[in-house]
Design goal:
- By secondary structure, this protein is of the alpha/beta class.
- It folds into two domains: about 200 residues, Rossmann fold, CATH 3.40.50.2000; about 170 residues, Glycogen Phosphorylase B (Rossmann fold), CATH 3.40.50.2000.
- It is built from 13 helices and 15 strands.
- The strands form three sheets. The chain has a seven-stranded parallel sheet with strand order 5-3-1-6-7-8-9, sandwiched between helices.
- Strand 13, helix 10 and strand 14 form a beta-alpha-beta unit.
- The chain starts with 8 loop residues before the first strand and ends with a helix.
Length: about 400
């Protein structure tokens, strides 16, 4: 009986891996679903939430200090560790994968944030003149870090032989805008854990969750989850809420940020009693169970996970066009899309339409759950498998061409 063909050898280069952060969750799920298809080697400083017996972890030590120095060390060290393993130990990889900018010689990369675009959007915020003197060291540090990553992006992303997966059409457009990258780019949406986030879970936990948060049964509960509340669209949402005074509406805001400016805004709009701020929790499902409508009018998100998770729970979702995740929503069919993330009047009208029609909420929620069921982590892993397979083929063609030239 012939021996089975060896599995392709995959090197994953990521500073850390766990299931508590967006990019890293994607990598962890990919490993869990593809460990039987690839011999997986992880070059990382920290690995959690995955069975280590399924992988080979090449641990790279971290160094203390400012983030930019830690990143420079990580970037250099993972190259050194892999060079040692390949040159001295004879450990050759069929494909090297990096979630983001972690190395110069990746064969496949997934892009979650384009730092050139981020720096453009935050230009005014990063001006020293727009910040108090005490915060200048932090601002300078951010500017150095963003410029460093952008310079690496300009070197890495234009490579024609690099297989790129992006989390949304929005990110794809940013690659075109900043790097003129149009080919060998595939949109691979995030996955959703439909075992955790489902209409059945939401209905089962609804009564207990609402009781826990002190919510009345006849109140219509809006929900926003995330950090960086200004970017998540909270100012627009608060102003929209102020237009709904005749409706029994309450807003839950879950995450971490400086509450002071938003408390002041809520007081100014006379809605402070209708806004509740809650700390984040590993049990995210409880928040979806407690609410009736998810509202996420982001100023910019490559692919915000909470709207997708809310859809999987069968909730009607209102999100902005500036959220790359709006690509999985058909307006009026399985959710509602706010075209202008600053238009609080339009947002108020969309929320009002849902508050005043239980039938509309139910219909959009059912369709949302159906749409979200197509974006599982298993399906995401299948798309990643295709990305790696394409990268392996390109590398083999390159190696064959190099051998031909050498001979």
């Amino acid at each position: 009986m012939a021996n089975p063909a060896p599995r392709p050898r995959l090197a994953i280069v990521s500073p850390f891996i766990d299931k508590r952060h967006g990019t890293e969750r994607r990598v962890a799920e990919c490993i869990s679903h593809l460990s039987s298809d690839f011999e997986i080697h992880i070059y990382s400083q920290r690995v959690e939430d995955i069975p280590l017996e399924q992988v080979i972890w090449h641990r790279i030590p971290a160094v203390p200090g400012p983030h930019v120095l830690g990143y420079l060390w990580w970037f250099a060290a993972n190259h050194l560790w892999r060079w040692r393993d390949e040159s001295i130990r004879g450990l050759h990889f069929d494909v090297v994968y990096s979630p983001g900018i972690n190395c110069l010689n990746a064969d496949a990369v997934t892009v979650h944030v384009v730092f050139a675009e981020m720096r453009r959007r935050l230009r005014d915020e990063l001006r020293l003149a727009n910040n108090p003197l005490v915060s200048w060291p932090r601002v300078v540090h951010r500017r150095l870090y963003y410029r460093l990553i952008e310079s690496l992006e300009r070197r890495i992303y234009p490579r024609a032989n690099l297989a790129i997966g992006v989390v949304s059409d929005q990110v794809s457009g940013e690659l075109v805008r900043h790097f003129n990258r149009t080919e060998n780019v595939e949109v691979i949406y995030h996955g959703v854990d439909t075992d955790v986030f489902s209409p059945e879970m939401r209905h089962y936990r609804r009564a207990d969750a609402r009781k826990q948060f002190g919510l009345l049964e006849d109140e219509i509960i809006l929900l926003l989850i995330g950090n960086g509340w200004r970017n998540k669209g909270l100012p627009c949402l608060l102003e929209a809420l102020s237009q709904l005074g005749d409706l029994p509406v309450r807003l839950l805001v879950v995450g971490q940020d400086d509450r002071a400016p938003f408390d002041e805004m809520a007081a100014r709009f006379n809605i402070a009693a209708r806004v509740t701020f809650l700390p984040p929790s590993p049990d995210v499902a409880q928040f979806y169970a407690a609410c009736d409508i998810y509202t996420g009018p982001s100023l910019h998100d490559s692919f915000a996970m909470p709207p997708a998770e809310a859809m999987a729970c069968g909730l009607p979702v209102v999100t902005s066009r500036n959220n790359g995740g709006s690509g999985i929503i058909a307006h009026g069919e399985n959710g509602l899309i706010l075209e202008d993330a600053h238009d609080f009047m339009a947002l108020g009208k969309l929320i009002r339409s849902l508050c005043e029609s239980c039938e509309l909420r139910d219909r959009l929620g059912r369709n949302a759950a159906c749409a979200a069921s197509q974006f599982t982590w298993k399906n995401n892993a299948q798309r990643m498998r295709e990305l790696f397979t394409r990268a392996i083929l390109v590398r083999k063609q390159q190696d064959a061409g190099t051998t031909s030239v050498a001979s």
